[in-house]
Amino acid sequence: MTDAERIILSTHAYKLDNVCKTFIQASESIDVLKNVDLTIDSGDSIAILGASGSGKSTLLHILGALDNVTSGKVFFGDVDLTIASPEQKAALRREHISFIFQFHHLLPEFTTIENVAMPVMLSGMDKKQAAGLAENALEQVGLKDRIHHNVTTLSGGESQRAAIARAVMTKPRVLLADEPTGNLDQNKGQEIGSLLLKLNQELDMTLVVVTHNLELASSMNLNYELKAGKLNAL
Ligand SMILES: Nc1ncnc2c1ncn2[C@@H]1O[C@H](COP(=O)(O)OP(=O)(O)OP(=O)(O)O)[C@@H](O)[C@H]1O
Ligand SMILES: [Mg+2]
Asked: Which residues line ion ligand 2, judged by CB < 5 Å?
């Protein structure tokens, strides 16, 4: 079976089994995650809350195959990430996992559509196909009439929507969002939350959102809190 089949045929998007993560810095060790168990059903939407420094980004990086656990098992679909090679993990990230960060990281000298199309063009997709996918994604996030604007002229919420379009244009299996409303007004939380949920349903894409924004969290199907290394259902 290929990795893609192990992901698509599985009923869960993720399964974490007894995951521990310890950082060692200057001979001091910090136990950020302690015996975390978590199953995320395929197509579900979850929010992870927790104080600053509680390990939310660490957990998201582990889900995104960007960081390794200290012990325990992490399955993405039925692919065991704890034994996957760096090349295998890079392929999973390229094909099935997308990220959105607090700051949208759009390139200021380009238009909205160029920003959205650029990553797939850099991985080899031809310009016409990339532009078509980018235009569809921008339409899905409500930015069709801003596609040829320079991104520096977009509002904060519009910029974040462009970053969301860029993340979902290849229809990933999962979208991992780290504080997607972190630099927006509180009332934009609901707007971004509704948009993420719409995409979650339209694209059947599992959604994991790390946030301090309670309005955004309440739009998700399940909420968890990280506290003292433990992940608790809310
Ligand atoms: N590479 C690293 N080396 C050492 N310590 C780290 C490393 N990455 C994170 N930490 C520590 O692990 C803890 C959890 O960090 P993490 O970034 O996951 O927190 P967070 O919940 O995302 O916080 P915030 O809400 O402020 O973004 C923090 O105490 C942080 O200092
Ligand atoms: Mg963080």
From this structure: 57
